[in-house]
Amino acid sequence: xVGDGQGLASLVRMRHAxxxxxxxxxxxxxxxxxxxxxxxxxxxxxxxxxxxxxDIAVDRRTDMGSAAVLGYTFGNRCDGPTxxxxxxxxxxxxxxxxxxxxxxxxxPKGELTVLRLDGRQAGSEAxxxxxxxSLGQLCVxxxxxxxxxxxxxxxxxxxEALAMVTP
Amino acid sequence: MNRAAILVAALxxxxxxxxxxxxxxxxxGGGSSSGGSSSSSSSDSDSSYxxxxxxxxxxxxxxPRCHDSSDVVGYRECTPFGKxxxxxxxxxxxxxxxxxxxxxxxLAGNHHGTISHSTESFAYRTVAAPxxxxxxxxxxxxxxxxxSRRGVFFAVDVELGSITASTPTNHEMMSSGVFGSPTLTQDxxxxxxxxxxxxxxxxFGRGRLGVEVAGGVRAATYSLVSxxxxxxxxxxxxxxxxxxxxxxxxxxxxNPFMSFGATAGASVIDRGSWMGGxxxxxxxxxxxxxx
Lengths: 167, 291
Known about the structure:
The structure holds two protein chains of two kinds.
Chain A: H1 2-29, E1 38-39, E2 42-43, E3 47-51, E4 54-64, E5 67-76, E6 82-85, E7 91-95, E8 100-103, E9 114-117, E10 122-129, E11 135-141, H2 142-145, E12 153-157, H3 159-165
Antiparallel strand pairs in A: 1-2, 3-4, 4-5, 5-10, 6-9, 7-8, 7-11, 11-12
Chain B: H1 2-14, H2 56-59, E1 92-104, E2 111-117, E3 120-128, E4 135-147, E5 152-165, E6 169-173, E7 183-204, E8 207-228, E9 231-255, E10 258-267, E11 274-283
Antiparallel strand pairs in B: 1-4, 1-11, 2-3, 3-6, 4-5, 5-7, 7-8, 8-9, 9-10, 10-11
C-alpha cells in the first residue's frame, strides 16, 4: 500500500512537472525572435523588411472593388514597446494611366490610431485604401509606419492584373 | 503540502488569460493572419470562430459569439483595430513558483490547552526552552503579482511546507488523573506563511536586481502525541505570529517571459530569523516590462 501511494504521488508530481514544463515552453514560443518572421498564429506574408525595432511583412491582397488592400504583419525586435502608425503610413497608388494618388485608409469607425506594440510581440492588420479606380501599382513607405526616416518604399503590382497576364 | 502548492500553481498557470494568452500568444489575439485574400478567416480568440472557408468551424461544437467574413479594418465587427496593442497598457503580471528554506523562532511555546484520554481531560502548557534555537522550515512558495514599468511591483506570497527541524519545547501537564499525568511529545509540524510584498527591481545585465519588503503572517501547526496509561492520542497545536522581512533578490532571464531567481532575506522583528529561496518566474510582458 505504501509503495502504491508513493508511486501515485510521484506520478502526480511528474504530471505537474509536465504541465509546468509544457507551459514554460509555450511561453518561450510566444516571444518574437528578431529576424525570424515567425510567430504563433501570425504568418508573415509578402515583402519583408526591417525598420527600427520592427520586422515587417506587407502583402497586397485582392482588391475590394477599386480599393486596394494591404496586409501588414509586424514583429517587435526590441525588448520594449515600439510605435506602429497604421493611421498615417504613407501609401501611394498609381493608376493604369500613370496618375499618382495619395491613399487614405478606409476607416468608417475612426479606429485607426498610433499604437504601440509590446516588446517581443507580433501583430497583424489588413487595411483597405479606397481609390477612384483600380490601381496598377501600390507603394507603401514602411519607415513612416514606425515613425523613422529615411523613407523605405515597398511597391506592389496588382495581383489581379498579374493573374490575367500570367498564362 | 508541496503537491498542494504545485497544484494551485498549475491551476493558475493553466488558465493564463488574459495576459498569457494561450495559443495566440499575445493577449490581444490581434486582427488576423494575412491569408492572401480579404475573405480570409479571422484568428482572433474573442471571436472564437473562423469564416466559412475554414474547416475548423465544422468541427467546433461551440456556437460562435461573433462572425467576421473579412479581417479588413472597417469591414470586420468582432475584433477592434489594434487589439495586439492592448498588452502595452497592462502591468506585467508575475507568477513565481519556488522553494524556500527558513529558520525562524518556534511558535510552539507559551500555549495552554487540554487533551482528552477517554473520559479524562488534562490541562497542559507548553514553554519554549530558554536555550532553544531556531526551527527550520522547507516550504513551497507561490507568488502572484504585478509590476509597473518603473520596476515597482506588488505581490502576494503564499508558502506551505513542513517544519524540518523543530526546537525543543517543554510540555508541562497541569492536571493529573487516575493513572497520573500523560506524557506529551512533539511530533511533526507544518508551516504556512502569507505576506504582501512591495519591492523594486532594476535591470542588471541579463537579469534584474531587486529589493523588497514583505509583511504578513506566519503560522505553524505542531502535532503533540500524548501517552497516558495504554492510551495514545494526538492533538494539534496551532499558532500564528506577524511576519516582516527585508529581502534582496536577483533573477536571470531564460527568455523574454521566463526567469530564474534567488531571494534572501531576514526578519526585522524576529532576531536571527532568515530565509533563502529559489524560484522560476513567468511574466506576461517581455522582461517584465522593465526595459
